[in-house]
Write a structure and sequence with these properties.
Number of helices: 1
Shape: elongated
Largest sheet: 8 strands, antiparallel, barrel
Strand content: over 45%
Distance between the termini: 39 Å
CATH class of the largest domain: Mainly Beta
CATH architecture of the largest domain: Beta Barrel
CATH topology of the largest domain: Lipocalin
Helix content: under 10%
Strand order of the largest sheet: 1-2-3-4-5-15-16-17
Number of domains: 2
Radius of gyration: 23 Å
Structural class: mainly beta
Length: 234
């Protein structure tokens, strides 16, 4: 019994030691910056040219070489609420109720319409409340970009995509589509149990824009890494 208790204590101390070894700040010249805090939360920022993203969430040691990241917002893919009825025409009619919180001006955004996986057209979001699609629709989804008439920042946000809707009939659809999401999604990078590699000193994170693994070096705790957050938070 004593041997079992001693072994358990040793394992616990080992896991605590591994966790402590990754607490701190890490940075890459290619744009990725992350801080692992002792309370198992993390701050992430990505800055490359004018592209900017951030994330907040929880981190967890999977083993001595892998860390799991789970953002507070696990996915920025927007669900579609669709009510679809048949009409007697061969065309497809779309009625779109779009809400982007807390914005009051849909003209600050553009929408791309994808039919059967192909981009059909893009329009300002204040002109998409009623659309006619003259081609058969098997699947449909949308993307949204943030393009305000008056720019208040040079940061560029990646587009936001919706989930895909599959029709029962390719023609004669009359769809009422509701889309509702928050403007903050545009700058948010979601992690859903994504893994980060570690050797105890440095990190490797996958960069979806460059499509390769980015090496992050440990930096001093006093280094100011973030543009959006207070670096003094422990």
């Amino acid at each position: 019994m004593k041997l079992i208790i001693i072994c358990g204590i040793i394992l616990l101390m080992g896991s605590c030691s591994i966790k402590t070894s990754v607490v701190g700040k890490f940075s890459s010249p290619k744009g990725s910056n992350i801080q692992f805090k002792s309370d198992s939360t993390f701050i992430f920022e990505y800055r490359a040219f004018h592209l900017y993203q951030y994330s907040l969430g929880k981190w967890k040691m999977l083993n001595k070489n892998l860390i799991s990241l789970t953002s507070d917002i696990e996915s920025t893919v927007v669900p579609l609420k669709v009510k679809n009825t048949a009409n007697r025409k061969a065309i497809n009619l779309l009625s779109i109720d779009l809400k982007i919180q807390p914005s009051k001006s849909l003209s600050d955004y553009r929408c791309g319409v994808y039919v059967n996986g192909l981009l059909q057209f893009t329009k300002r979001c204040d002109s998409i409340s009623s659309l006619v699609i003259n081609v058969p629709i098997d699947t449909i989804y949308f993307h949204f970009t943030r393009e305000p008439a008056i720019m208040t920042t040079t940061a560029i946000a990646p587009p936001i995509f919706t989930r895909k809707y599959v029709t029962e009939n390719s023609k004669g659809n009359e769809m009422e589509i509701e889309v509702d999401f928050d403007d903050s999604y545009f700058y948010y990078r979601s992690f859903d149990t994504d893994t980060v590699k570690t050797n105890g000193h440095n990190l490797k994170m996958y960069d979806p824009y460059r499509k390769n693994w980015d090496k992050l070096l440990r930096v001093s705790p006093s280094t100011n890494l973030f543009s959006r957050f207070n670096d003094r938070i422990p």
